[in-house]
Amino acid sequence: MTETRHQPMSARRRGVASSAALVAAALIVTALGVVGCKDKGPAASYSVRGQIETLNAIDGAQQAFIHHEAIPTFVNREGKQTGMMSMAMPFAVAEGVSMIDMTPGDKVEFTFEVHWDQNPPVRITSIRALPADTELELSGM
Length: 141
Fold this sequence. Notes:
single chain
């Protein structure tokens, strides 16, 4: 019968093993951090009606300035439901959303997402024209 003896690990081998364990741990933490940094999705999404005031492109990106109806369920950056009164404001337009047939004065229904960690934080994700005789509840008009 052969007897197997376990040799104590040398200081150098312990150092290499410790370094390898630290590198592995760092890689795991980094991987988890990268996964955690991915877009968390919108903080909120709202559908609202409004009237287009202007359409333009800034640095190649579409932007619409729309006077929208009040949004009573709007949640602010701190997560508190504050509502948003009817107002005119700029909205970035998401890639793939076409506003080609829309002009200032058009009445629309649109959905926008809020991403507090992005600039700009609001972006239209869908939009459709409403009949011209649609009555909107817009303050200040």
